[in-house]
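Troubleshooting: if your tokenizer reports a length mismatch, compare against these two reference records.
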Amino acid sequence: MLRVSGVTALVVTLTGTMTADLQQVASSDPPALAFEAASVKRGAPADAGALDQLPADISSSGNRWSARNATISMLLMTLDNLSMEQIVGGPSWLHTERFDIIATAGEAVPDAHLTQMARQLLVDRFRLYTHIEQRPFNAYALVLARPDGRLGPGLRPNAPCTARAEARARGVPPPPVTPGPPPQCGRASMRTVEGVRQLRMTGQPIANLLTLTGARAALGGLVVDRTGLTGTFDIDIDYVPLSVLTTSGDTAQLGSSVVAAVEGQLGLTFERRREMMDVLVIDNLEMPEAD
């Protein structure tokens, strides 16, 4: 946290992309893709009650994948676009022990390959084995609020960042940029002024909005993206965060600020639904050997 003239500011860059398909983490077949080198070190234990805060730094770029101060549950949520409720079983330290991981490949590879290699690293170093089941969930689905599909003023498609993300996913060079500085794709800034959080996101998928606003914690349940919006967006949203409402004792309004801001400023809304969801069941997970 950086405090500037009474304003709390936080800047984070999300350089990786989340995969929408939940895939098997472990396989009995020899790995098709693996990092050439990887370092895994244990960090300080996490506060299990604070996992709804901004996630640890997990990023990928070129031939490098890294995680700083991250729990295994955070890694699984990021690699497979999961919520905490979709991870079942495993030892208690799954949510508390933090790790610093740096892994490199011999050459630049597409983001999808880096994700597959990161999964294989968890198999090799943590002996992580899983299987997938479908279970029913009461969920909040993020959907378009207006019948005509019109978005709010705080939600704008970012064509240059979408093109760059698609190029990275295919493993090809990004398209040339127009004169001027390159787009700041994946950047998010957050500051709180007089109890109001101001979140500014550049060139990010809609799913990241659910993570950075803490919508799941505010609503008190599983939240899924059902907007059908693809590509990346610039997102500007101001709302009163859960921590402020809790501290003020205004428990009757928990979640209402985020919900109202999402609908009024972004043109999206949350619908309560019963959905069948994939869950990742952990069959085995072990502490890694020290480097």
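Reference record two:
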Amino acid sequence: MAAGIALHEENLDAFKRRFEEVVEAAKPPLRREILKIDAELEMEDLDGALAETLTSLHPHGMGNPEPVFFTGSVRPCDPRIVGKNHLKFRINAAEGPLEAIAFGKGDLLDLVRKEPVDIAYTPRFSTWDGWRRLEIKVRGIRPAG
């Protein structure tokens, strides 16, 4: 979210201090992340046609969040770290192997190596070097069950 303000330069330091106080007071206590799951989906049902339908729901934002699906007991293949700390792996879906990316979740590499896992994710299309392919953006991972 964004906001704009105007103030005199001599008020800037006081504004910064008060702003930081308000932000600090508004922080929720540390807790586990809770994901809102829209539906449970079997990997056999995840295909390009479903992803196309979901694409028609764009644009996503605060009033229209991306749909999040849950699939239990997924068996990741070839898990690895890419970029600074992103977890990438493949899973078997309706149309064959599907790439999965979990941004900022590289610390879960050992967990996905122990398979199976439950995942929360959003299907999407990725375009790179002229190729468009279905993949999933993983939102959460936990041990199966």
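Descriptive notes for reference record two:
- The CA atoms of residues 23 and 131 lie 43 Å apart.
- The mean pLDDT is 86.
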